[in-house]
Amino acid sequence: MTDPQIAIMMLGIFILIIFLGFPIAFTLMALGIIFGYYAYFNPGRMWRDHDRALEAGAGNWELVETWVGGFFNNRIFDLFVNQTYSVMANEVLTAVPLFLFMGYIVERANIVDRLFSTLYIAAKRLPGAMAVAALITCALFATATGIVGAVVTLMGLLAFPAMLKARYNTGFASGVICAGGTLGILIPPSIMLIVYAAASGESIVRLYAGALLPGFLLAGLYLLYIIGRSVLQPSVAPKPTEEEAGDIPTLKLVVMIFTSFVPLAVLIMAVLGSILFGLATPTEAASAGALGGLMLAVAYRALTWQRLREAVYLTMKTTAMVCWLFVGSWTFSSVFSYLGGEHLITEFVTGLDITPLTFLILAQFIIFLLGWPLEWSEIIIIFVPIFLPLLPHFGVDPLFFGILVALNLQTSFLTPPMAMSAYYLKGIAPPHVQLVEIFRGCMPFLAMVFLAMIVLYNLPQIVFWLPELIYGR
Q: Do 463 and 400 meet the contact criterion of CB atoms below 8 Å apart?
């Protein structure tokens, strides 16, 4: 077999192993080292000291020692150590644990229940008011945390029972929670975009600026669907009775907004604004956001030693997962490229003589399919870099491609059979709520994601307008 054929076999074995359920980060590292040992195998270099000792008539112990040393004198081990150091020293990735910590602290600050109640009261005259309040709460909370599972679970415990009690259709209510909870990986400050920036070399500040309008576009489409369906089919979201709606004085509502909505919104806008306008680097802004999250928890009297420990533990656990994924992915991809696999794929795709539109559709379709068995982090770190070298050939801007991918990955949480948002919600939903009802409720929101992608392709200035306005071309 030629080296490129071995590289393709390496990729095939990896896909087979992850479908068997092995840990992905360690699978990548193991395959990278095993195939890398073959790729960098050089007997003359590796056992040079052993051959010299043998010629000099050295003792058995010295021969064994030099042979073992030669066995580990393969450049793949140097590569592995260097890749590990590069990941741990990557300044872009430093923002990941800080944003995660901000999210976990905010999650434990008892803000969400107040926020949802306030938004529901403020929007009670709108059709589907409780669903509108739930979606906005999900979007704001998801933006602050960037952790889909935490948002869907918490909102599933808070807003989902309230909507069921208000006689909302089960599928409709499920779709609102699942779709709203995934917005955090798209709307800045998004951890997913930080990971894409590290994988692609694209500017994180331009990515944040480019993702802002598409994120609002998708959230707006969700809201239009919720209100439109509530108007056309009132049975899915019945209007509250006078007793249920209550009569809250305007002054009290203003106070509620200032104590629930405003603090979190100011925190997010301060963090995002300082990044977009160059007042701070993403890492510095994330540090300020983490401190702001702590201050919010103190202000709401929700900061306890136990909650702080949990936030730190979960931050370290998630950060370690992301970092080891990067180590494994970069080791794997370096060996894959060295064997000629990347060149082979590039030649194959460019030889198809397809248009940029066909390439984008093909790439997004593959990412859509990968979203079934894999998490977004694994797709971004492992598979997206395969497409990046092809972008110049087809004239696709990496910024535009990244935002399309971020939109596309919304589907990985909403598409059966591995719709993780649906499973998060099912895990805490009442027993009578069936998984198939949750899947059914996610389908219209899935259609909104595809619609947003179509709009984005036909109107790419939605992505480019804000980055060009702030930073120029």
A: yes
